[in-house]
Amino acid sequence: MIDRLCPPKVLFIDDDPAARDAFARGMKAAGFDVDVADSGPQALGLATQRRYSVVATDLRMPGMDGLSLIRRMQSLQPAAAFVIVTGLPDVDLKRDDVSDRSIVSIVAKPWEQEDLAATLRTAVALHRRWESSAAGAVSQADDSLSILLIEDNPGDAELVVTYLRRTSLIVAGVDRVERLGDGLERLRATSYDVVIADLTLPDARGLDAVTRLQGAAPDSAIIVLSGLEDDELSVQAVQLGAQDYLTKERVDEHTLERSLRYATERKRAERRLAHLAHHDELTGLTNRSTFRERVDHALARCRRQQVGLGVMFLDLDRFKMINDTMGHDAGDILLAEVATRLKVAVRESDTVARLGGDEFAILLEDLEGPHVPSEIAERVIRAFEEPIDLGAAEVAVTTSIGIAQYPNTAETVEGLLKAADAAMYRAKAAGRNSYRIAQGYDDHGARARLRLEGDMLRAVERDEFLLYYQPQVNLRTARIVAVEALLRWRRPDGTIISPRRIVPLLEDMGLIGRVGEWVLSTACERLSSWQREGRTDLRIAVNLSAQQFDRYDLVGTVDHVLAEWSLEPAMLELEITESTLMRDTRRTNAALDGLKEMGVRIAIDDFGTGYSSLAYLERFAIDTLKIDQSFIRGSGNGEKRASVAGAIVGLGQRLGLDVIAEGVETGDQLRSIQGEGCEVVQGYLVGRPEPEWGADWGVPPPLS
């Protein structure tokens, strides 16, 4: 048995006495040392007297709201993890750079006691890691390892410890427990760099131990130390989340040291991949794809709460001249300094992103009035009044800014971005170093929107929609293994409209459920006909909208369609976005669980452009990652995005997932992604979307 640890200290703040009482009773029973406060000032007073692992707070309280309290509390409790407990439906918080790490979870009222306790245990583990990291800021501490050994055989455990002493590694400490349950309890309270676990324990047998350890310690490297020499078992262990598999008969100090170095490096690489997928490497700012996701999320919140937001596009004036004259290294220094000045100029609630080159964007949320974007634009312009020191010289930099606002300018992500971009070019044309505000909808635009909506309604009634099919090709076998069904709208004049314009309109008009069911049924009907022609191994891929999870019986619909066309569930792959996966609503979770129980495959579309975590990939047993084409475009020409594509391929392989490269259009891109180990591709190079292609498709020209 493990030693009893001091219960983690938790502070809960809520102005509702019933909520404070329920929290205190439930969490004390779960093993936490709980203090409660009824207001921000009272909580700050307690924080000067005690150190807390976790601070949980309501969002809306009289006097001082939850976010303001967290910002004040961080100076008093720098290593604390913060949890928001709120009754606000679908709360969507924008967090500044400091609190972004500290706020680890949002819990909805009324909560389930077990779920809340699990959230607090995760928060405690993060607090321990942050505390340990802060205490070991000295360089040596970064290389030291804390190890949890789960082994019930005393002789084997002693041998492992002996081998560890003989390695050249700096081991900060080794804690040993004999049962998996004790190890899980220890992991909830303490953070470890590495977990070494036997697969044969008194309370666990086989690979279930790996799954449970991965869930309890997602940031820890896991090494299986087993008495069984089984290649298939070792592969399965790695697929479930272990970083390595060692057999007891073959392990020695050299093998163990190599495994520890390898396992910890793989964990670091995974964390690095997650960061690269969402941030610009040079400046550390949010990247283009993640910025679009944040604007999308912010728009959804604005529609619910009927508030406004702003989007700013910025372009540095005459950056190309500076870059060409002084060199790319000087240009990189300049861009990094620009990012720093932009972050200082905006508010804490705003998001600054680098879109690429010398283009930046800012998302302005929680606008107190239509004047706010102009005030921030003026602050940004003033931020560049001082020259920037590039070492060899100081340079004067100015910026041109375009501003678009919801709902005055546009009501969609695409509309806002295009309007802000156009306004920015107007600022450049007006003499640079200035800003322009995009004008609102004119009558012509409004009438065009109404006509489009009317045409869309008639399109639904007249069956004007059709499906195009695009193949997914296995490079190793040169065979088509799946086909993606892509929605198109053929207007009466013969114009073909793409899903980028169709789907947002269908969602706004509440028609996505009806059309989505038609897409699913039509695609499955086509697959059924291909199977009758002999292609029994072919899969069909269909895209889902997030609204189909919220408003419709998605699982029942899929089950009915599969039965109607006599298809095996594994022959259907449903594609969802990362944002849909991460919504974490009960309806979404229940639908995904139901689909997986049925045997339907799930793919993450445009992977690398959203927020998904590795834990979610495992939680819902995702089958396929589709690399976003923005990373594929960087392949083959030396861009850094190519390294992200390769990292995603490696991640998918480690997790045992299929990986598909989208948007492959050139031979260089094909060779590059194939060199990274990706076996399945989709794109114009191997097959354009076509309405009438069939199961007799031949070998794509580039592979023949």
**Which percent bin holds the helix content?**
40-55%
Please state how the strands of the largest beta sheet are arranged side by side. 20-21-23-24-25-26-27-28
Beta content comes to 15-25%
Cα end-to-end separation: 63 Å
What's the tally of helices?
A: 27
* Mean of all residue-level pLDDT scores: 83
Shape: globular
Q: What kind of sheet is the major sheet?
A: 8 strands, mixed, barrel
The assembly state of the depicted protein chains is single chain
Low-confidence stretches: 1-5, 89-100, 134-142
Structural class assignment: alpha/beta
Indicate the radius of gyration in whole angstroms. 27 Å
Number of strands: 28
Search tags:
704 residues; alpha/beta; eight-stranded mixed barrel; five-stranded parallel sheet
If you had to describe this structure to a student in words, what would you say it looks like?
The protein is α/β, with parallel strands linked by helices. It is built from 27 helices and 28 strands. The strands form six sheets. An eight-stranded mixed β-barrel has the order 20-21-23-24-25-26-27-28. It has a five-stranded parallel beta sheet with strand order 2-1-3-4-5, with helices on both faces. Helix 4 (97-102) links the parallel strand 4 (81-86) and strand 5 (103-108). The relative contact order is 0.06.
List the helices and strands and how they pair.
Elements: E1 9-13, H1 17-29, E2 33-37, H2 40-47, E3 54-57, H3 66-76, E4 81-86, H4 97-102, E5 103-108, H5 113-135, H6 139-143, E6 145-150, H7 154-166, E7 171-177, H8 180-189, E8 194-197, E9 200-201, E10 204-205, H9 208-216, E11 221-226, H10 231-239, E12 244-247, H11 253-278, H12 288-305, E13 309-316, H13 319-326, H14 328-345, E14 351-356, E15 359-364, H15 372-382, E16 388-389, E17 394-395, E18 399-406, H16 413-429, E19 435-437, H17 443-462, E20 465-474, E21 479-490, E22 496-497, H18 499-508, H19 512-532, E23 539-543, H20 547-550, H21 554-564, E24 572-577, H22 578-581, H23 586-598, E25 601-607, H24 614-619, E26 624-627, H25 629-632, H26 641-655, E27 658-661, H27 667-675, E28 680-681
Parallel strand pairs: 1-2, 1-3, 3-4, 4-5, 6-7, 6-8, 8-11, 11-12, 18-19, 21-23, 23-24, 24-25, 25-26, 26-27, 27-28
Antiparallel strand pairs: 9-10, 13-15, 13-18, 14-15, 16-17, 20-21, 20-28, 21-22
Helix pairs in contact: 2-3, 7-11, 8-9, 11-26, 13-14, 19-21, 21-23
